[in-house]
Design goal:
The protein is built from 15 helices and twelve strands. The chain is an alpha/beta fold and about 400 residues long. It has two domains: about 60 residues, no CATH class; about 325 residues, Alpha-Beta Barrel (TIM Barrel), CATH 3.20.20.70. The structure holds ligand V47 and iron/sulfur cluster.
């Protein structure tokens, strides 16, 4: 395999520093790297070096496949009781006039738009609204299950769940069990931000703390509900904070194996209380994907969320450890549009996703939420009339 040859020749390269060479050898021998070594990667690893290591692991774990799915979001409201400094999306109650609140019927109408469409996942996420409670969301889930039993229901960040359960006076386990009975199938990765308590206190002091975020995901895994994990990077955190964040996730994954994918989220600085902080470069984005791929040896997948990072960088990231670029989205999320992403109407057709992946030399696989293959697009050609025909 070419990626192995590249790694071996990098190790034999005489000019490489000893500590970097040792890490590369560990990767070749499939040994776990330490937190100190991960910090060394961030501090000293050049993009080319990190890419060789990350690509080797990526191809070992996922071959040449790049995954995507057909999905849409439901964002019932952007009114939020919390005040995260990095958030461009939420509005508080003083700014109610600028906010949206979907009625229950509007939510169902929104889902009806997809009647007859082969979408496989709905991602429900939004601001934390004090009136939208556990009962409301349980009813939404039940009705979505009835309307479209074929669509996987992934919903609610640990931040939304913590608030919902606290208000309903139920434990995390009781609340998750109840939502599961009513149709919740997995949790998205949002709300993790940076687990370090001091940084969290600076950027999102009033919402669910790190311990609770981890407890909610652990309980979900114990109940048989998988989840994703995110990390908001490129603001006031240091490399050590990023590594500490991923280390807490790696330890939890060792215990439960319940995380599907890790999704680094680049801080975007438009129209929020941290707008004075410059965004990191695309090179730093790619380095970050690569270090995540190298460090998180017990995560099967690393996702580049294209509405946040832009389709071009998402495509490049496939050479730096990423094997998943999220889905069609259908312009159904505002989180990154409002934070300054280059994707102002995020929607890609299946054909566009397939072509993007192929143009970068990877093998496109449409997956379901749990990474089961729905369609292998290696030998498909798209036809304008029939939309899709086997080659
Ligand atoms: O927790 C908010 C982030 C997250 C900004 O699980 C920002 O498949 C950057 O978690 N700059 C919510 N990031 C979205 C999320 C997510 C997205 C896509 C897929 C999945 C998944 C999960 O958005 C928040 C926060 O970390 N966020 N504002 C901003 N200005
Ligand atoms: Fe509310 Fe989420 Fe925005 Fe924080 S990131 S203010 S919890 S919508």
């Amino acid at each position: 395999m070419q990626s192995r040859e590249n790694l071996v020749s990098l190790i034999n390269h005489s000019e490489i520093a000893t500590d970097l060479k040792n890490i590369a050898e560990k990767v070749l021998n499939e040994e776990r790297i330490s937190t100190d070594e991960a910090i060394t990667l961030y501090e000293k690893g050049e993009l080319g070096y990190l890419g060789v290591l990350a690509n080797y692991i990526r191809e070992k774990k996922n071959g040449n496949f790049t995954y995507f799915n057909r999905n849409f979001h439901i964002e019932p409201t952007n009114l939020c009781v919390f005040d995260c400094k990095f958030c461009s999306y939420s509005r508080n109650f003083k700014q109610k006039g600028e906010a949206w609140e979907m009625t229950e019927e509007e939510i169902y109408d929104y889902v009806r738009k997809y009647d007859g469409e082969p979408v496989t996942e709905v991602h429900i996420v939004g601001g934390v609204h004090p009136k939208l409670n556990l009962e409301f969301f349980a009813r939404i889930l039940r009705n979505l299950r009835e309307m479209r039993p074929d669509i996987h229901r992934k919903g609610f960040t640990a931040v939304e769940l913590e608030y919902m359960f606290r208000k309903a006076k139920v434990s995390v386990k009781e609340g998750l069990e109840y939502l599961k009975e009513n149709g919740l199938q997995s949790l998205p990765g949002g709300g993790a931000e940076i687990f370090d308590e001091a940084i969290r206190n600076e950027i999102c002091a009033d919402k669910c703390d790190s311990k609770t975020w981890l407890e909610i995901h652990e309980t979900a895994h114990q109940l048989g509900m998988p989840s994703n994990a995110t990390m908001l990077y490129g603001h006031i955190e240091t490399y050590a904070h990023r590594v500490d964040h991923m280390n807490r996730l790696r330890k939890l994954q060792d215990r439960t194996g319940g995380f599907n994918t890790f999704i680094p989220l680049k801080f975007r600085n438009q129209d929020n209380q941290m707008s004075h902080i410059p965004e990191v470069s695309t090179i730093e984005d790619l380095r970050n994907y690569a270090v995540a791929r190298i460090f998180l040896d017990n995560f099967q997948h690393i996702k580049a969320y294209w509405p946040m990072i832009g389709r071009e960088t998402a495509a490049l990231s496939m050479s730096y450890g990423v094997d998943d670029i999220d889905g069609t989205i259908d312009d159904s999320t505002k989180i990154y549009t409002m934070a300054g992403s280059e994707e102002q109407t995020p929607a890609l057709s299946t054909q566009q996703l397939v072509e993007l992946i192929k143009a970068h030399g990877r093998h496109p696989i449409e997956r379901d939420t749990l990474y089961n293959t729905i369609t292998d697009y290696a030998n498909y050609v798209f036809d304008e009339k029939t939309r899709l025909t086997a080659n």
